[in-house]
Write a structure and sequence with these properties.
Elements (H helix, E strand, L loop, with lengths): L1 H12 L14 H4 L11 E5 L5 E8 L2 E11 L6 E4 L1 H4 L8 H10 L4 E2 L4 E2 L5 E6 L2 E6 L5 E3 L8 E5 L5 E6 L2 E6 L6 E2 L8 E3 L4 H6 L6 E3 L5 E8 L5 E8 L2 E8 L9 E8 L5 E3 L8 E8 L5 E8 L4 E8 L5 E8 L11 E2 L5 E5 L6 E5 L5 E4 L7 E8 L4 E6 L8 E6 L7 E2 L6 E6 L6 E7 L2 E8 L5 E6 L20 E6 L5 E7 L10 E6 L18 H6 L3 E5 L9 H4 L9 H14 L4 E11 L1 H10 L8 E5 L10 H8 L6 H7 L13 E6 L8 H12 L5 E5 L10 H19 L6
């Protein structure tokens, strides 16, 4: 009785924004129409190197999927449009397959201006638009076209001093002098299977390395990769579109099979001469990260072993390519990669490590000797966001007080000191720190506050709004705000005593005397936590309006926690996650306003896998589920992700057998599943779902499907597709769980 009364009290407190029955209801038509219900949001925010101008991407008012480049002067004044995407997009321009895949890896779901790059001097902004390159000159405000070719220019950059633009075209690296002159190919023999300066599939998809080349600070050299895919297996998959199907022969490195071979070179920009970097005798490694020393004389390379239990930091002599290890991290589980390496002017560097059981920051000298641990405690650093060498502080985000909030902190790296919070608590901060001085562009959000972006001084004082985005009259969401459901947050204990964080939202007009069905929204996989104090996707409100309670729980393996919590799943995916989510469902069953027979579950990708594992678990508490793009057999997935958590099938046969969905289909109740998948998925390939379909049909177990021709893993390129997915999911749960009508 005491436990559910506490939860009920929290739910009552969470109803403060609930409205009356006559308040305006949100509809799917409005959620997926323009303007964006979440209001004007600034994406990809950056500060000019001199800190006087903020630049950002902003969706058009009439098309949430088309973004332009905007700017706001820090001194004040109205933000202004710098580059109108529609004015630059060529008619009928079709992106290359390589660029489509690259955008899929990066999660880019918009068109127009989707990225941009400042030079370190703050004179130019380079803007790729649908395959061609444009340059904004800050001096005169003019936009000039740099390329006009049938082939896409990808991964374009302005060199540090603004002397060149570089890009990859047709698997070769080019540089174009901005002072005048013709473009120059630094490589000429690149091909699809043997490419220069590109990030291979695994680097893009699983390692968060989206580039294959790096400028030296003095612009004299470029470090660049050579990727040889000839040894990678060809996986033939049907790319099924609206008008037919094609067979795609994709180089896809599945678990236990060969990866692409990645070599690293240093090229002289003036002469084109190349020196090969010595990455060691074992070619079966991952090139994880590449960074330059401040003086450009040393190249730092992070080399990860195939089993991902060792990460070496190499110092490279750029004149000879000779390298030696100056630092190593090891783990009995796996090493998580990060972008926390920061070279300092004195030759030392900052580094993050989980060796203490929590992710913390460390200072090293030029030779790799540890100087001091910079942060400590039973909480994890999220990421380094900036360094102010004048003040001797490192600026970082962290989940210091609770895993469900994120704030910005600074701490001295020159002397032992406690971190100082720069931003307020209560929600989630995303920041971009200026290259000098510590000023930052910060976006804050919480469950009752849409993302608000401003420019702040180093001490956290607001200088000006970029997008205030206040939920007030005139905001797109304001007509529906009285029915907005602010979640209640709580914890429950896992079987090992660890706290499992959860959140719950109830329908408008919630009556605790009634019983409601619950939809559990799950991801559950490593690398992503759903229980956070953020502004929710407005589509979530549609489930509430339909009469469902929404519940989410973060299980063992999810981030922002200790190493022990994250690595509990090591070599046994689908065990701890299922146990924790089942504990969450059993907790729901104790609540008097929950109908224990009407609990459903849904998720996408790893969440789709979790949905299937939960529906097929013995004595499952889940009555129905919608599974999207699920991995069903981990032997079909890629090397870096799967081997990190599972090893290889040869070394962990029992773990792979226990995690396979198709081996447990006898546990699925008839008509309890809706399976969704994009029919051109090149990540979780479509055969994951066809194997499941065949297994269910062989057992005569009825299920439903919703397939999306031509769509890849995210299966949501247009607002219409997203609307269709949401409405199909709600319709399925309405048939299976009979929602309690909301007033």
């Amino acid at each position: 009785m005491t436990r559910w009364m506490g939860a009920l009290a929290g739910l009552v407190l969470g109803m403060t924004m609930a409205g009356t029955a006559d308040a305006q209801k949100l509809t799917a038509e409005r959620v997926y129409a323009a303007p964006d219900l979440s209001g004007p949001r600034a994406r990809g925010v950056s500060l000019s190197p001199d800190g006087t101008l903020a630049t950002y991407l902003k969706a058009k008012a009439d098309d949430p999927r088309m973004t332009d480049l905007w700017a706001a002067d820090i001194a004040g004044g109205e933000p202004r449009l710098l580059i109108d995407a529609r004015a630059l997009i060529p008619k009928d321009r079709e992106l290359s397959e390589a660029e489509k895949s690259r955008r899929e890896r990066q999660g880019v779901q918009t068109r127009g201006v989707v990225a941009y790059d400042w030079d370190d001097q703050g004179r130019f902004i380079l803007v790729p638009v649908e395959g061609d390159l444009w340059l904004y000159s800050r001096a005169d405000g003019q936009v000039s076209r740099l390329t006009n070719t049938t082939d896409d220019e990808i991964d374009a950059k302005v060199s540090p001093k603004g002397g060149f633009v570089s890009f990859v075209r047709s698997d070769n690296l080019y540089v174009l002098p901005l002072g005048g002159g013709a473009e120059k190919a630094l490589t000429t023999d690149g091909s699809e299977l043997k490419s220069w300066a590109t990030a291979e599939f695994i680097a893009q998809e699983e390692m968060d390395r989206q580039t294959g080349y790096w400028w030296s600070p003095d612009e004299r050299r470029i470090a660049l990769t050579h990727v040889d895919q000839t040894g990678v297996d060809v996986v033939e998959r049907a790319d099924i579109g609206p008008t037919g199907a094609t067979i795609v022969s994709q180089r896809y490195p599945r678990v236990g099979r060969p990866n692409a071979r990645v070599d690293l070179y240093v090229a002289d920009v003036a002469t084109g001469a190349r020196v090969k970097v010595d990455l060691g005798p074992d070619p079966d490694i991952y090139l994880a990260r590449v960074d330059w020393a401040k003086d450009g004389k040393t190249l730092y390379v992070q080399r990860e072993t195939r089993d991902q239990r060792r990460l070496d930091l190499l110092a490279v002599d750029v004149a000879t390519g000779a390298a030696h290890v100056i630092l190593s991290e090891t783990s009995p589980h796996w090493i998580d990669l990060s972008d926390d390496f920061r070279a300092l002017k004195d030759g030392g560097f900052l580094w993050s490590s989980e060796r203490s059981g929590w992710k913390h920051l460390y200072l090293y000298g030029p030779t790799g000797k540890l100087v001091r641990q910079v942060t400590e405690g039973d909480w994890p650093v999220d990421a380094i966001q900036g360094v102010d060498e004048v003040r001797g502080v490192v600026i970082f985000t962290a989940n210091k007080d609770t895993p469900i909030e994120r704030r910005l902190y600074e701490v001295s790296y020159k002397a032992h000191a406690a971190p100082k919070a720069i931003t307020k608590a209560g929600g989630w901060w995303t920041v971009k720190v200026a290259k000098a001085g510590g000023a930052f562009a910060g976006t804050y959000e919480d469950p009752a506050t849409p993302p608000q972006t401003g420019v702040y001084r180093a001490d956290g004082t607001l200088v000006r709004w970029i997008e205030h985005n206040e939920l007030a009259e005139g905001h797109p969401y304001f007509p529906y705000a009285k029915r907005l459901r602010v979640p209640t947050f709580g914890t429950l204990k896992a079987s090992d005593g660890a706290d499992l964080h959860w959140m719950m939202r109830t329908p408008p007009g919630f009556d605790p005397a009634k019983r409601y069905p619950v939809i559990v929204k799950v991801y559950g996989g490593p690398g992503s936590a759903l229980v956070r104090k953020i502004w929710a996707d407005p589509a979530d409100q549609l489930y509430l309006e339909a009469g469902f309670i929404l519940f989410t729980l973060d299980n063992h393996g999810t981030p922002n926690r200790s190493v022990a919590f994250k690595t509990a799943i090591d070599r046994k995916l689908g065990t701890w996650e299922v146990a924790d989510q089942t504990a969450g469902a059993n907790y729901l069953k104790t609540l008097p306003y929950v109908d224990p027979a009407r609990i459903g579950v849904t998720g996408w990708s790893y969440g789709g896998y979790m949905t299937l594992m939960l529906l097929t678990a013995p004595n499952t508490p889940f009555a129905a589920g919608v599974s999207g793009a699920p991995p069903t057999d981990w032997t079909l997935y890629d090397t870096h992700y799967t081997e990190r958590y599972m090893g290889t099938p040869k070394d962990n046969a029992a773990g792979y057998a226990g995690s396979e969905v198709t081996a447990r289909v006898d546990g699925l109740k008839p008509d309890a599943l809706l399976l969704m998948h994009g029919m051109a998925d090149d990540n979780v390939t479509f055969d994951n779902s066809t194997r499941l379909m065949a297994a269910l049909q062989a057992k005569a177990i009825a299920f439903e499907t919703m397939l999306y021709p031509g769509l890849r893993h995210r299966a949501g390129w247009t607002q219409a597709h997203l609307k269709h997915r949401t409405e199909a999911t709600i319709a399925f749960f309405t048939r299976k769980l009979t929602p309690t009508p909301a007033p």
